[in-house]
Amino acid sequence: MERQRALELIQKHVTTKNLIKHLLATEAVMRSLACHFGEDPLAWGMAGLVHDLDYDLTKDDFSQHGKLGAEILSEEGIDEDILHAVRAHSGNVEAQTRLAKALYCTDPLTGFLVACALISHSRKLKDVDVPFVLNRFREKRFAAGANRDIIMKCGDIGLSLEEFIEIGLKAMQETADDLGL
Q: 3-179: which CATH number, 3.30.420.10, 1.10.3210.10, 1.10.260.40, 2.30.30.240?
């Protein structure tokens, strides 16, 4: 699927600006992770871009989250590896590939990094660094909705927490204008 078609589907199914920004952030981080691992950045970025396509449709029945999105995307002929990652990112299906595992731990990381940016003096990602994020990571009350156990699953894709944060933060800083941060 072409990125433009994915954006059309997002426009059709996603109703909030913040969720669209989350999708763009996840796309950026997933592309960077793909480059780091020598994988296809277009495929990994696409998985990040469309992973919450069904969020509004499944918010009242989280057990369907990822499944419905994969059904919508399947009709578009999207690759099975991406469909598996979309199904697995919600935790409703076990992540079995590096792509799926990467998406699973990236999803909450993007929200955590946004929260870090919002408490910086400028409220911008440019003023956030890895030590700042790591310090906040240890504060359990800070960004409590960002599941740290899931973020720590970065070890399953061969990255330390510090490496994962560094890759994710740099990717989001590079697309900060699109994210409004």
A: 1.10.3210.10
Tens digits of residue pLDDT in 85-142: 999 999 989 999 999 999 999 999 999 999 999 999 999 999 999 999 999 999 999 9
Q: Which residue has the tokens 């156990």?
A: 149
Q: Per the confidence metrics, is the pTM higher than 0.90?
A: yes
- Contacts by residues 39-47 (CB-CB < 8 Å, ≥ 24 positions apart): 39/98, 39/99, 42/3, 43/79, 43/81, 43/82, 43/99, 44/99, 44/102, 45/3, 46/1, 46/3, 46/6, 46/78, 46/82, 47/81, 47/82, 47/85, 47/86, 47/99, 47/103
